[in-house]
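Team,

Forwarding the record for the chain on the shared tracking sheet. I've put the sequence and predicted structure together so nobody has to dig through attachments.
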Amino acid sequence: MKIRRSGRLAAWLAGIALAAGAFAGEGSSGAQQATLDALSPLASSDELVTRLLSPITQLRISRYLDRGDAGLAPQSIRVGAETFDLFVPAMPGATGYGVMVFIWPGDGMSMPASWRRLFDERHLIFIAARRSGNDENVLDRRLPLALHALGYAQRHYRIDPERVYIGGFSGGSRVAQKVALGYPDVFRALLLAGGSDAIGTAGFVPPSRERMRLFQRRTRVVFATGTQDLPNRTKDARTKKSFADFCLRGVQDISPPRSGHWVPEDRVMARVLRAIEQPLADQDGAFAGCDARLEADIHARLDEVERLRATGHEEDARNALAAIDNLYGGLATPDSLRLAEALYPVLRSGASGDAGAATGNGTTE
């Protein structure tokens, strides 16, 4: 199963070409290369579909596969064919190592040397997959490689599960978002540098209620986009508003001053890591009103779909339901799935129909 590739933007090329060259090949000073030696079950096709795609897209895929016309390969990555840039501190902490899985927008980019002292002091492993840039397929490669990177670290080092983080830069930051939202039971914090998407855009869809509650209540999110990176600062503003609308508790902005489209330098990165590692205080009471407003909006939109369907406006009902599925994802189930089966007969269990109608446009980017 594939999603569309995102093209290289001219602004991205202009902003990071020099930086990529400056940091290429830095792995000789304290970093090493590791080869994938086993596959993580978290990166299986079933897990990716269940955690990352909208519920109605999942239903389309399920009904299509039920017909026996095709199947999903269990894994899209091969053992021994992938490598990671890996930095391991000299010593673990009292509870083991922490780990930061990082996603770059292109190859030829390595962990900045100025970060190594910070990661060493915090007993924090840094690992980033090669061949995982913006030109690579997101669902087939970039997402699973990030999960395999974590699996590698967990197999070879004693990792504290409370100190498992994910981050990225530019297009890699946007992929890291998807991983963090789909796997909030795994990753405790998310670093967004130079790129982000609002919830409900670019395939960034809430997962099941249980997982979304973890993302809302427990995940620390740190924005670290340079103050001079104006296009991405604008996108970050939209993303932060969507996070507030979805009642996220742990959002901070630690913007590198007088900085353009690049990752934070060491002084700012030290603040970022402190924020990432700071557990969230119990704020449930302060967000009770937000939770109620969110639930009310979901139910009001679902009621409107019911009204449109009941009055014979089925095309409008389908369009409204698609908008709900893209924005609210798992938070709108099971009602959204019940309505999907009513509005799309081909999605009913045991129904026969055109494969294209079943799979729809279930791509995310």
